[in-house]
């Protein structure tokens, strides 16, 4: 899994952002001008489009494909204060082989844990499944920058393949876009390993706190300018978390970013996606908004925990023709 | 004609190098079951509360435009049949319906509305089979709006004295109504609901290519125990329609359809006591300013012209786009058009269905060819996304013409198909001038983030309906109708009552 996550050289934009876009980050004022110059998002229209895509009817072979694809895109997550090494090990075992009764079920894309559990997780999954760690004073992001960077470096050192950082929503909402930009750039730098490789950076917006789709679009461009590998909706700790319209706006942003730069950025809705039916709606949206190129765990993830069991249940139903109860699947 | 595929930019550079995900996630067919509808092999005329044979015993076939399969034999009403239907409507009017209290009339309308909802799946499937429109639209738009119309006018039936047309407005009598094939059930609801709510009885002629939902509606009238003769449905083509319009005992004529037919109706009723409302053609301007929410504007353009295969009188068939964003917007529009799913109307994932008839397809092809000839040698072009059209049935791909000017026929004539003409403008004043430079004036769209501009432009536009940052939205509470050659009178809302009372 980790091998496919390494993008081919030259498509990433760490310093390869076209000049016209790079100029946008030269000062707070120019960054604000750029972000506020992006086309607006009409709330009613965006929600109507998302609702329409939700009416697509995915059946039979397409559904089987979608379920397996969705399983392979799950970042299986446990982010509780009461997490124990035992629980993390169980989670990792499940990520490797989600359905013990059926080895044909794909493994998930990653497990997502707090930084102190990275080593434990790594012991179990090795290189077969990525380990993602939340960092930067997750979930509120309320800490000094050097603490956030230390937090990140710790997780990378412990072996994290991916870092899920939160942006400083206070700074963003106050219009201090350059602060947010510089912080993302700094965290990306902290993702670098001694051997020159780097952990992949997912940037969490906490869209439930950003309030408007215009803000979501601006945050998306801001994060992409700063070098995010993935843009992610939510921590899962704030309601509303991921929604279809928010994800729509982010998918439009990564699509437009590729038009502008040639580079792809991934999207990760997280929190609140619980049913296979919902997951399939997201896949339809990826397919029709960003395009089929994004239909891969390299470019699209679900941050979820309970979703996996519903995907497995639907999968078993498709293969056997019968519904089995939740007791036949492992608890996370 | 450049068919360059822009749907998957840079595919080669992206992805993981494995099999193309496009092939992996092809949506499997998801057809709605036809088993929910029971189409009879032949239908009579619905007169006086029951199905009767036509006097001359003539009939015509209605086919499915997606497959050309014959669905049923439908009776063709002659003048004698229309006479019988008008007599039944007159009898029901004088003996029952005009004497009934508004409250009682309202109960019947509520009952019809509820049955429409209960049988919505059946109606939606039948509409898609007979008309060719995608099930997603008949299920989510046509049938719910038809039911909503009956609910809305049911509410007015006992409150007519408070509608602003006097304390005690009176019905006109018998209404002769002729409706088109593009929204068969919805147009029926627009016509019948206000007529019945105000105490009129009706003789309605559905279009000859789409009579089946009207005939199912006749069964619903029976199911609702509507007094016999209050609703009569006579099927047939132009001659039947002319007989309805010209009948001396018809007090009111309501027509939706082409401007050409509307003109001849106006001639027929000129000099008589008949009241007339006409809802005719359109060539709506959809105006996109440079500050528009661009992704939603693209959706609105697509919805404006490809909704219902462009068989919409208020379709946004002329896209006026500010020149500074024209190139970018067109790229986005083409990319979006490439994702439209054209095919089986009964498949729940179909976006664009079949053209309603061979005749209409020929007309669309003719005008599209004219457009191609007109644009030859200029900067404009004809473009359609690559799409596989079914072998049988009537199909036309979503098509866009760029570089069109006001002088081109495709910018002036109503094509009534999935064909968009794109023009550009520089200033708001120019946009308004171009939008109004048309003999039609049914609808228009404005796309901008600036509220003051929406109000300014809307005030300048000579169009009956102006949508701002949306398109093709309908609601029974909102009046609908045209300026200029798009007709007169309003349907829907409180205004829709006025055409049926004195």
Notable traits:
heterodimer; A: 332 residues; alpha/beta; 8-stranded parallel β-sheet; 15 helices; 8 strands; 48% helix; B: 502 residues; 7-stranded mixed β-sheet; 6-stranded mixed β-sheet; globular
Return the structural class of chain A: alpha/beta
Mean pLDDT of chain A comes to 93
N-to-C CA distance of chain A: 21 Å
> Structural class per helix/strand content of chain B?
alpha/beta
| Biggest beta sheet summary of chain A | 8 strands, parallel
Helical segment tally of chain B? 15
Kindly estimate the percentage of residues of chain B that lie in beta strands according to DSSP: 5-15%
Q: Give helix and strand order of chain A, one letter per element, not per position.
A: HHHHHEHEHEHEHHEHHEHEHEH
Oligomer classification: heterodimer
User: Which stretches of chain A are low in confidence, meaning pLDDT under 50 for 5 or more residues running?
Assistant: 1-14
Task: State the helical fraction of chain A.
Answer: 40-55%
Report the principal-axis shape of chain B: globular
Biggest interface, chains and residues, is: A-B, 37 and 35 residues
Give the beta-strand count of chain B: 18
Number of DSSP helical runs of chain A: 15
Characterize the biggest β-sheet of chain B.
7 strands, mixed
Distance between the termini of chain B: 55 Å
Uncertain regions spanning at least 5 consecutive residues of chain B: 1-22
Query: What's the arrangement of strands in the largest beta sheet of chain B?
Result: 13-14-15-12-11-16-17
CA-atom Rg of chain B in angstroms: 23 Å
């Amino acid at each position: 899994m980790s091998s496919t996550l390494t993008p081919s050289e030259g498509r990433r934009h760490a310093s390869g952002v076209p000049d016209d876009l790079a100029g946008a980050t030269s000062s707070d004022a120019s960054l604000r001008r750029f972000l506020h110059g992006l086309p607006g998002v009409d709330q009613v229209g965006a929600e109507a489009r998302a609702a329409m895509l939700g009416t697509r009817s995915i059946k039979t072979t397409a559904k089987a494909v979608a379920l397996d694809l969705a399983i392979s895109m799950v970042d299986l997550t446990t982010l509780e204060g009461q997490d124990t090494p035992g629980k993390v090990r169980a989670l990792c075992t499940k990520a490797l082989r989600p359905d013990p009764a059926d080895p044909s079920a794909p493994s998930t894309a990653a497990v997502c844990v707090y930084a102190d559990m990275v080593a434990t997780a790594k012991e179990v999954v090795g290189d077969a499944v990525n380990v993602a760690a939340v960092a930067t004073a997750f979930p509120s992001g309320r800490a000094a920058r050097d603490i956030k960077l230390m937090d990140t470096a710790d997780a990378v050192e412990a072996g994290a393949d991916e870092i899920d950082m939160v942006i400083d929503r206070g700074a963003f909402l106050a219009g201090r876009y350059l602060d947010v930009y510089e912080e993302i750039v700094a965290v990306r730098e902290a993702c670098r390993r001694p051997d020159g490789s780097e952990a992949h950076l997912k940037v969490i917006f906490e869209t439930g706190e950003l309030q408007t789709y215009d803000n979501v679009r601006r945050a998306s461009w801001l994060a992409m300018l700063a070098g995010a590998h993935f843009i992610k909706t939510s921590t899962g700790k704030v309601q509303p978390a991921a929604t279809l319209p928010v994800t729509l706006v982010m998918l439009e942003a990564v699509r437009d970013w590729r038009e502008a730069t040639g580079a792809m950025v991934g999207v990760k809705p997280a929190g609140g996606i619980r049913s296979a039916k919902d997951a399939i709606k997201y896949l339809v949206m990826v397919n029709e908004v960003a395009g089929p190129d994004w239909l891969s765990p390299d470019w699209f993830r679900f941050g979820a925990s309970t979703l996996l069991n519903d995907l497995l249940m639907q999968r078993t139903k498709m293969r056997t023709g019968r519904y089995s109860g939740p007791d036949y699947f492992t608890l996370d | 004609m450049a068919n360059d595929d822009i749907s998957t930019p840079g595919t080669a550079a992206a992805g993981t190098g494995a099999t193309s995900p496009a092939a992996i996630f092809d949506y499997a067919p998801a057809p709605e079951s036809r088993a929910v509808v029971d189409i009879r092999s032949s239908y009579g005329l619905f007169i006086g509360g029951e199905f009767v044979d036509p006097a001359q015993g003539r009939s015509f076939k209605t086919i499915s435009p997606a497959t050309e399969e014959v669905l049923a034999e439908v009776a063709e009403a002659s003048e004698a049949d229309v006479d019988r239907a008008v007599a039944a409507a007159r009898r029901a009017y004088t003996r029952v319906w005009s004497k009934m209290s508004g409250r009682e009339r309202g109960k019947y309308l509520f009952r019809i509305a509820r049955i429409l909802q209960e049988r919505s799946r059946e109606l939606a499937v039948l509409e898609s089979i007979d008309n060719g429109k995608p099930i997603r639209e008949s299920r989510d738009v046509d049938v719910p709006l038809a039911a909503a119309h009956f609910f809305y006018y049911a509410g007015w039936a006992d409150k007519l004295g408070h509608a602003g047309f006097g304390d005690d407005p009176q019905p006109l009598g018998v209404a002769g109504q002729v409706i088109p094939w593009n929204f068969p059930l919805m147009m029926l609801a627009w016509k019948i609901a206000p007529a019945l709510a105000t105490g009129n009885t009706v003789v309605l002629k559905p279009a000859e290519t789409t009579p089946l939902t009207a005939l199912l509606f006749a069964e619903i009238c029976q199911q609702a125990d509507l007094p016999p003769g209050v609703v009569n449905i006579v099927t047939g083509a132009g001659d039947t329609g002319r007989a309805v319009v010209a009948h001396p005992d018809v007090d009111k004529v309501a027509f939706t359809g082409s401007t050409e037919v509307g003109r001849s109706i106006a001639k027929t009723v000129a000099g008589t006591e008949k009241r007339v409302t006409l809802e005719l053609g359109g060539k709506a301007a959809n105006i996109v300013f440079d500050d528009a929410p661009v992704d939603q504007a693209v959706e609105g353009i697509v919805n404006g012209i490809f909704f219902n295969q462009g068989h919409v009188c208020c379709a946004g068939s002329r896209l006026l786009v500010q020149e500074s964003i024209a190139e970018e917007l067109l790229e986005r529009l083409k990319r979006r058009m490439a994702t439209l799913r054209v095919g089986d109307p009964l498949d729940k994932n179909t976006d664009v269905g079949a053209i309603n008839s061979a005749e209409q397809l020929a007309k669309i092809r003719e005008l599209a060819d004219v457009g191609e000839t007109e644009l030859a040698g200029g900067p404009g072009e004809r473009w359609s996304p690559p799409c596989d059209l079914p072998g049988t049935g009537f199909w036309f791909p979503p098509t866009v013409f760029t570089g069109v000017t006001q002088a081109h026929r495709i910018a002036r004539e109503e094509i009534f198909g999935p064909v968009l003409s794109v023009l550009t403008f520089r200033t708001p004043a120019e946009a308004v001038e171009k939008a109004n430079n048309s003999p039609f004036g049914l609808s228009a769209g404005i796309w901008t983030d600036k509220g003051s501009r929406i109000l300014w432009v809307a005030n300048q536009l000579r169009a009956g309906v102006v949508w701002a940052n949306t398109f093709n939205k309908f609601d029974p509470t909102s009046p609908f109708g045209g300026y200029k050659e798009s007709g007169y009178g309003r349907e829907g809302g409180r205004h829709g009552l006025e055409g049926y009372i004195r």
